[in-house]
Amino acid sequence: MQRRVAIVGYAQSEYQFDVPRTREDQVFDVVKAALRHAGILREEVDSVVTASSDFLDGRTISNVFLSMAVGAYQKDESKVEEDGTGALLYGLMRILAGTHDVVTVEAHTLASTINPHQILFYALDPLFDRQVGLLNDIAASAIQARMYMKKYSVPEEAVAMVSVKNLANAALNPLTHRKMPDLTVEEVLNSKIYYEPIRELMIPPITDGVCALILASEEKAREITDRPVWIEGVGTCQDHYLRERNLTQLESLQKAAAQAYEMAGIKDPYREIDVFEVSERFAHEELMISEALGLAREGRGQVLIEKGLTGLDGEIPINPSGGALSADPICATGLTRVIEAAKQIREEAENHQILGVTRALAHGQFGICAQKNTVFILGGDR
Is the pTM of this model over 0.90? Predict the structure, then answer.
């Protein structure tokens, strides 16, 4: 990138179910906290980009109701549908284009207001899959999980270990929704079955939440903070519809990661990246994500979890914050991963801090069976 861009501030709400406050109140508080964390005023922001979904918000052009709350009054404002990493990419491009210097990026979903799994049903093919009525996002992911597990001889215990790890990590993070520090593999495998082999503790809880961060050009970032978190690389890719792609691999994530690695000059992510924050909406996805990111050979993601390499004390910690399994505010989930990765670099992750983090990867996804993927590489001053 010819122009360097940094994250200079951020904030998150506490992730819960059925928060007894309006969407506007929550967004206002979080954006205000992000500005305060950066040490700047609303007047210093040039542009605002939000991420949400009209379907999940339950109203058309939903961002129009948030213009005041997000601090967009008399600002250049726009919205990205779906994952917050898309809004971050849009904000990044605005600064790289030279038209803006400071951008607020906000993402939210109050998933408790409507069952998000019912909404995602409408992402299915309207001429066949919707008419037959057998598929939804959970059923499709169950098919993916079984295909992946069968092809690579992945035991259910390895998938359950992902839930155990992430929900134990979540107990160290005060913002997470589901915290289970003493969870066992047996408890995961004995939890309610949704669609075989997907069980209740392999799926995130329905979560309300808001997060926001502040982007700045290098010139402004140097004025705002002495601890900027630089965006060193980014990649994004969208795959085919689920019946037209290989469900045992996340090929769009492979391509997105390759783009981000090339931009950041990374040759060996296992050795060059200190921590990974990924959006694993189902436990088996973390194994597949680790392979797509080049941390394990095809079908060998299970080895990483079985050997403890992805734990807090492992060689490649994945989701020390608890990941999406602990809180999934849908449109905010990917941006949450970016904020958690930035916190690691700035040593602000408190009880789930990994020592010596200088470079981190954050991943966001959207769509059934992780159809769309975005990867960011973040780094601190060296």
Answer: yes
